Amino acid sequence: MQRNTQQRAAIDRALAEADRPLSPREILEGARRSVPDIGIATVYRAIKDLLAEQRVVAVDVPGAPPRYEAAGKPHHHHFLCRQCDRMIDLPGCPGQLSRLAPPGFSVENHELTLIGRCPDCAAPKTRRPRKQPARK
Amino acid sequence: MQRNTQQRAAIDRALAEADRPLSPREILEGARRSVPDIGIATVYRAIKDLLAEQRVVAVDVPGAPPRYEAAGKPHHHHFLCRQCDRMIDLPGCPGQLSRLAPPGFSVENHELTLIGRCPDCAAPKTRRPRKQPARK
DNA sequence: GTACTAATGACAATATCTTCTCAATAACGA
DNA sequence: TCGTTATTGAGAAGATATTGTCATTAGTAC
Fold it and tell me: I want to staple A105 with a disulfide (CB 3.0 to 4.6 A). Which of A28, A101, B38, B135 is the partner?
């Protein structure tokens, strides 16, 4: 039987508060605000369960492992900031994207990511720190 | 001084003949038609050099490592067949994609991939084999 | 409060992709 | 043809992300 642990609650809270796709590490950091000693394995276990329950969806990231956000949002796409590495929801979809495919292709889905600088990083005064290069 | 080896020529040929983004493994298989004993390390070394010379570009693949195709083509996007796993060029771009981003975002680039079945796999008679599950 | 056991944290183990090492080979200028 | 050395193939090693193991902890029914 499934138990309501503080760790699961902290992970739910982190995902809800962010309202954007988070990497497992970002989920970990968010959850640590509630449960400082939570471990990364617990985050991966929770992601697996949440995906199975369809309470979160995986979001593909160009050139990186997927991130995860709450399921049930209307169809939308994402912006990836190449400075702070955060992924942010963009409302809406241009539509008609399937028309790019010539006849004979069966289009079932599409992935669209805009890449650049988010408002925080584009503004010269309030820069967020650059993404940390992977720890050695 | 750079030498013109059979291996490099085979890799160039594989990329040119495919005219679509290839994974390192696909490049290896293509090149082996010319040089049967070529190794994967040689393919990675060639990719690195070709990227530095800007003779090929990396193409991001949702949920997989990047593939590589000849540089210099007009702006275009790609189709990913979820059955045979091939990536295929699509001509053109819907345009105006930057408009999805609210004011404040600085959009520098975009990635668009349509996903589904390519004509070969969608047609019931001439199915290509499914992607091989990664070798054990 | 107790007993049962799901869930956890730490870290080992996988899995996958890419790069490095090095002896052997082959491209090419002389 | 010969000598030099860039390039190669094979396998080891590295890098990173994810999952497995297991003793311990903590939800929950009673």
Answer: A101
Is there a contact between B110 and A113 if contact means CB atoms under 8 Å apart? yes
Class of domain A1-73: mainly alpha
| Contact criterion met (CB < 8 Å) for B115 and A107 | yes
Q: Which residues of B72-99 are buried (b: 16+ CB within 10 A; e: fewer)?
A: eeeeebbbbbebbbbbbebeeeeeebee
User: Residue A111: its chain B contacts at CB < 8 A?
Assistant: 62, 111-113, 115
For chain B, the structural domain boundaries read: 1-73, 74-136
Q: Do A1-73 and A74-136 agree at the fold level?
A: no
Structure tokens at A27: 């989920």
User: Taking CB atoms and an 8 Å cutoff, what residues of chain A touch B51?
Assistant: none
What's the pLDDT tens digit per position in B8-40? 999 999 999 999 999 999 999 999 999 999 999
Binned at pLDDT 50, 70 and 90, residue B136 comes out as very low
> Which CATH topology does A74-136 take?
Dna Ligase; domain 1 (3.30.1490)
